[in-house]
Specification:
By secondary structure, the chain is an alpha/beta fold. About 35% of the residues lie in helices and about 20% in strands. A hairpin with a 2-residue loop joins β6 and β7.
């Protein structure tokens, strides 16, 4: 984006501090992303027509964290997804609502305004229950501020409503999490397409969590891998749920799971020792 001045007064890399939590103490994330190179991206900085039209990029993934970094970042998302659709590139978007990123720039109302502008350009929409309610304004019966429990059938009904509001959605994917404690969560996922309706991944009750940060991103990448690989949606959502579960057994938000581990767990494998 620009030359580094040695301090980061104008441009730098972003940081994200996380406390993983334990037992009754929930995880805590603190973003330090002001003046980052990503936040300073603006329309015209990237030749999207070259990427999608000439190089033939098949898939573009972005999300609500990037869109929240600045007004120019949000406009860059709009430019990118519009260009992708022009060239037939599949676009996925993880709503990733973070109240701390929006609170100084308009809060939830601003998040909904931005995400509602982006949503009509998205093929694969991904999020959890808070994302769909806070970032797009859809109501999920029984979901309050606690977000501690969620009925899968209730959320599936909300997905049908979202699909009707945005007929461009080819796939909707979501994680389902019931927080028993910071270290014990029920974990599952479901996905929807017009062809299949709602399909459910394996529900993992009382999953032991080492570090929950990255579980949602790993679900998204597992789901996308399955779709890019040409797998049925029911298989792709199993990949996503398994990948998310494995990511939460290691520290940090970057997955350490191998493809073989994901396929094993998605296929019903256990935690027995491999020798």
């Amino acid at each position: 984006m620009g030359p580094y001045d040695g301090v980061g007064r104008t441009v730098r890399n972003g940081l994200n501090f996380t406390e993983r939590g334990f037992g009754v103490r929930g995880a805590l994330g603190v973003s330090d992303r002001g003046h980052t190179a990503a936040s300073q991206l603006k329309p015209g900085d990237v030749d999207w027509d070259h990427l999608f039209g000439e190089l033939g990029v098949r898939w573009l993934h972005t999300g609500g964290v990037f869109a929240a970094l600045s007004q120019t970042a949000a406009e860059t998302v709009i430019e990118a997804v519009t260009a992708a659709k022009r060239h037939g590139t599949v676009v996925s978007y993880d709503l990733n609502y973070r109240p701390s990123l929006w609170k100084a720039i308009g809060g939830q109302a601003a998040a909904q305004e931005v995400n509602r502008r982006i949503a009509p350009h998205i093929d694969v929409m991904i999020g959890n229950e808070e994302d769909f309610t806070a970032a797009l304004g859809f109501e999920v019966e029984g979901v309050g501020e606690n977000l501690s429990t969620l009925e899968a059938d209730t959320f599936a009904a909300m997905i049908e409503t979202a699909a009707a509001a945005y007929p461009n959605f080819a796939v909707i994917g979501t994680t389902l999490r019931t927080v028993r404690s910071a270290t014990i969560n029920d974990w599952g996922a479901l996905a929807w397409s017009p062809e299949t309706g709602v399909v459910h991944a394996t529900h993992r009750a009382r999953l032991e969590i080492m570090d929950r940060v990255g579980g949602g991103d790993s679900f998204a990448s597992g789901l996308i891998f399955g779709l890019l690989d040409g797998q049925p949606l029911a298989t792709a959502v199993e990949y996503g749920a398994a990948h998310g579960a494995l990511a939460m057994t290691t520290p940090g938000d970057t997955t350490m799971a191998t493809k073989a581990e994901v396929l094993k767990l998605a296929g019903g494998g256990s935690a027995r020792v491999d020798r």
